[in-house]
């Protein structure tokens, strides 16, 4: 069929090139999708109408087939149309029992305007990029010869492990010798190695009721069972953990005592002592995710330091320096090294020596501490900004956390807010990816504060979010027969 979008594209607000000029305020495919939205609202395109093929519409508008394909994809994402295999693309019918996003959300911002509040990411100002380049330049002039030729030891080059061990002991308070440290390609790699060392297929593992989605994905990959334990603002609740250990007899317990993702819950020293006592009494393996350790201004002794013979301790520099520095440090009980190292060899042979040479340089000259301190200051500034803009909404957050945990006000569902926020040019994360049990998800979102390097863009994103939450949620545009 032929559809006439010209009146809607001729609107100066459409973003379509006007008057023969090639300049436009947004990509052509978005202008086409918005024109389709206006045509539907105006009654020009009625539900159940079959749309022209991509090629036909491209010829009508004088654009490429790829542009029309992207326009159709955007329109389907907005809830305007539906592609049906073998029968073409159709305007959504009102009786298909779906909530049409275009009826309950505003027009989308251009893709280039998306403000990312969704990913847990450290702030990366230009100075961080400059330091990384300077480190690579410095190493090029005086590179340890083994960095280029190494393919063993599997656990990492001796000088890198020695230096890492000293730093882990002095800075984090994690006891051990160089032989107990294994170098990994980031914290996620270390987590996989630790879990697979002591957990077999179908074994049961306990963790926080809300936990990092990487552990949930790992449980599905390795085939072990994951069960959540209740938490509060100080992390896992000792009595609940004690009861769960007694009832389920888990093979291991995976915990994040410092700045739990997504809530930011952090155990104080008393809570750590209580949890360690529970684990020791039950004789269960502890796998501690301590990747946020450097984001806390006050040193907190790892859980693993209290029960080192039954603990795997994981940390990295990714969250406190720059994400591209994929270095993970895994402290392994000496009795389990012969199980961990074959798994390291099978997954990456050995961790990339060059990245650990950068890390070693930065640890030795104090750059890691400088960057971690700067990160804490940058995040504290952003947490204050978020508290001001989102006031009086309640929230959970640490002063120097990568994100905050925001319960939603009256009537809002997290998945609905995520959809509407996307139309407003915001990317946010709901509680669903962090849910261990298949139960009703908390009506909360995680708002990340580090992914946008420019403070002005973060402020704009937070103001958009605050404006959304001040209004009641849009009505459900769903018809049931």
UniProtKB/TrEMBL annotation:
List GO molecular-function terms, semicolon-separated.
Answer: DNA binding; DNA-binding transcription factor activity; pyridoxal phosphate binding; transaminase activity
Ordered alphabetically, the record's keywords are: Aminotransferase, DNA-binding, Pyridoxal phosphate, Transcription, Transcription regulation, Transferase
- InterPro entries reported in the protein's UniProt record: Aminotransferase_I/II_large, HTH_trans_reg/aminotransferase, PyrdxlP-dep_Trfase, PyrdxlP-dep_Trfase_major, PyrdxlP-dep_Trfase_small, Tscrpt_reg_HTH_GntR, WH-like_DNA-bd_sf, WH_DNA-bd_sf
Q: Which Pfam families match?
A: Aminotran_1_2 (PF00155), GntR (PF00392)
Give all residue intervals belonging to the HTH gntR-type domain: 26-94
Transmembrane region(s):
none
Q: Where does the record place the region Disordered? A: 1-22
Family classification: In the C-terminal section; belongs to the class-I pyridoxal-phosphate-dependent aminotransferase family.
Q: What is this protein called?
A: PLP-dependent aminotransferase family protein
Q: Which species is this UniProt entry from? A: Halomonas binhaiensis
Classification from the root reads: Bacteria, Pseudomonadati, Pseudomonadota, Gammaproteobacteria, Oceanospirillales
């Amino acid at each position: 069929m032929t559809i006439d979008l010209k009146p809607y594209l001729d609107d100066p607000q459409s973003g379509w090139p006007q008057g023969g000029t090639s300049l436009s305020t947004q990509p052509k495919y978005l202008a086409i999708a918005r024109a389709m939205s206006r045509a539907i609202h105006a009654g020009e395109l009625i539900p159940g109408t079959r749309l022209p093929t991509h090629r036909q519409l491209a010829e009508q508008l004088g654009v490429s087939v790829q542009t029309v394909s992207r326009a159709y994809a955007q329109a389907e994402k907005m809830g305007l149309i539906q592609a049906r295999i073998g029968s073409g693309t159709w305007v959504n019918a009102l009786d298909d029992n779906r909530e049409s996003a275009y009826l309950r959300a505003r027009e989308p911002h251009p893709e280039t305007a998306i403000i990312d509040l969704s990913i847990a990411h450290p702030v990366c100002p230009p100075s961080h990029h400059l330091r990384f380049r300077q480190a690579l330049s410095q190493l090029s002039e005086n590179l340890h010869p083994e960095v280029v030729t190494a393919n063993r030891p599997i656990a990492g080059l001796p000088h890198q492990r020695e230096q890492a061990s000293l730093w882990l002991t002095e800075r984090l308070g994690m006891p051990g010798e160089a032989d107990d440290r294994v170098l990994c390609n980031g914290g996620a790699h270390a987590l996989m190695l630790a879990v697979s060392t002591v957990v077999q297929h179908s074994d049961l593992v306990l963790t926080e009721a809300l936990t990092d989605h990487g552990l949930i994905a790992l449980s599905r990959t390795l085939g072990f069972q994951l069960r959540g334990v209740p938490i509060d603002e100080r992390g896992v609740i000792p009595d609940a953990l004690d009861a769960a250990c007694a009832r389920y007899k888990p093979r291991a317990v995976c915990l994040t005592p410092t700045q739990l993702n997504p809530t930011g819950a952090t155990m104080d020293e008393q809570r750590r002592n209580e949890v360690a006592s529970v684990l020791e009494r039950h004789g269960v393996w502890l796998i501690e995710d301590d990747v946020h350790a450097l984001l806390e201004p006050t040193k907190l002794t790892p859980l693993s330091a209290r029960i080192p013979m039954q603990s795997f301790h994981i940390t990295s520099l990714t969250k406190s320096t720059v994400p591209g520095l994929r270095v993970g440090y895994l402290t392994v009980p000496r009795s389990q090294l012969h199980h961990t190292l074959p798994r390291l060899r099978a997954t990456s042979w050995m961790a990339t020596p060059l990245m650990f040479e950068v890390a070693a340089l930065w640890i030795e000259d104090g750059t890691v501490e400088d960057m971690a301190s700067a990160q804490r200051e940058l995040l504290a500034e952003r947490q204050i900004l978020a508290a001001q803009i989102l006031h009086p909404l309640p929230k959970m957050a640490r002063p120097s956390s990568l994100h905050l945990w925001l319960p939603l006000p009256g009537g809002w569902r997290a998945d609905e807010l995520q959809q509407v926020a996307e139309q407003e040019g915001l990317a946010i994360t709901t509680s669903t990816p962090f849910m261990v049990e298949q139960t009703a998800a908390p009506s909360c979102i995680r708002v990340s504060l580090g992914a946008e390097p420019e403070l002005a863009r973060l402020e704009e994103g937070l103001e958009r979010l605050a404006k959304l939450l001040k209004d009641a949620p849009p009505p459900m545009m769903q018809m049931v027969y």
